[in-house]
Amino acid sequence: MAEVGSHIERERSNTSAKGPLQRFLRTIGPGFITGASDDDPSGIGSYSQAGAQLGFNIGWSMLFTFPLMAAIQEIAARIGRTTGKGISGNLSRHYPASLLCVVVVLLSVANVINIGADLSAMADALELLIGGPSPLYVIAFAIICICAIVFIDYTRYVKVLKWTTLSLFAYVIAMFAANVAWADAAKGLLVPHIQWSGAFFTTLLAILGTTISPYLFFWQASQEVEEEELKPSAKPLRWAPWQASRAFRRIRADTLVGMAFSNLIGVAIIFTTAATLHKAGVTDIASSTDAAKALEPAAGKFAFIIFSMGIIGTGLLAVPVLAGSAAFAVGEALHWTVGLQRKPKEALAFYVTLAAATALGTGIMFTPIDPIKALYWSAVINGICAVPVLIVMMRMAGRKDIMGEFPVQGWLRAMGWLTTITMAASSVGLIAQWFA
């Protein structure tokens, strides 16, 4: 009991020693970075297409996805913090190897394709801004991302990621430069508007696939494990239940802030493209760079520059997260030593996998594969992969032999299953679109 009391007092003193701003900055972490990384260049392309094609009427989808996204990410974080293992680590210990293999392979393939598409969008955005050879920029961005995640100390790298999230405010600035009709925008945000057309449902499915992606579950769960391992007094909650109350409050605050921030940026992109491209009759946007190019005549040079810079900033945040989540999934499945806080020589296979995922994504640019089509298929694979991962996560989160005293229950469990059902329905709808 004395040891328990000392842990509690130590955590209380650490928290009370800081002011409100410092406490807030300490609270935001894995959830905030995960939410921000969701707005990667591929996500920007999906939101841009939604705003250009459907105008303000699709804005409500961001409010709809917020509670689903926040609930499932909190569940992923709780699994990591409670068990001391990521999603893949728990899968490898409690479920058949065949299921683990399918999930890890699907996740890795989707992540590699997404990395390639994001690097392509970043290079195209830089080419739009300053000219020059796009393939060279792809390689340069890939090297920057690999070197940063491998060679920068983890605690410093987390701070870099947090500051990189500020690049997303470029889209808020672009929104205010776009002369938005705020009354129409508010109506589109607050009043659900459904069009019974293939284009509408395809766009809605794209938004769901963008906001609720498996790599986000894997990343946030693994980062909770990383954060716990860095604190000498912290232990997996199964073996340190006295830490649960404070840990769960922090996870909820972190996740809600992160997902709210992510969806706020999504709203800003939809409003920007609705007020400019949709209004000008430009409704076919294939990528984030297409949106940037179309913005210049519709909203001016300033909006074009801000939008393009945002693509580069979000890519620098998202590519390491995509590569890192794949490395965590593969490493935990094979029982390697994993962790960004470890030196490369201590977790060589983990870092090689991370670099290989980025390199393979880079290689897509030098094949006949169309990056835009690759992006579409990564979204399809993510949507298909999300359903079995969500089902396994929900079952995992409810098992006392895995979660100890802290199985996910009540409204959070209900929201998690609602998210699972929604994603399953969206996958069925996507398949139905193929046959239609």
What can you see in these coordinates?
The protein has 436 residues and is mainly α. 78% of the residues lie in helices and 0% in strands. α4 crosses α14, α6 packs parallel to α16 and α7 crosses α8. The longest helix has 35 residues. The protein starts with a helix and ends with a helix. The N terminus is likely disordered.
Précis, in short:
The chain has 436 residues and is mainly α. Helices cover 78% and strands 0% of the residues. The protein is globular, with a radius of gyration of 21 Å.
What attributes does this structure have?
about 425 residues, about 0% strand, mainly alpha, about 80% helix, disordered N terminus
Pattern of helices and strands: HHHHHHHHHHHHHHHHHHHH
**Radius of gyration (Å):** 21 Å
Percent range for helical residues?
Answer: over 70%
The major β-sheet equals: none
- Total strand count, please? 0
Overall pLDDT confidence: 84
Strand content: under 5%
Low-pLDDT sequence parts: 1-17
Number of helices: 20
Q: What general form does the structure show? A: globular
**Terminus-to-terminus distance:** 64 Å
The structure class reads mainly alpha
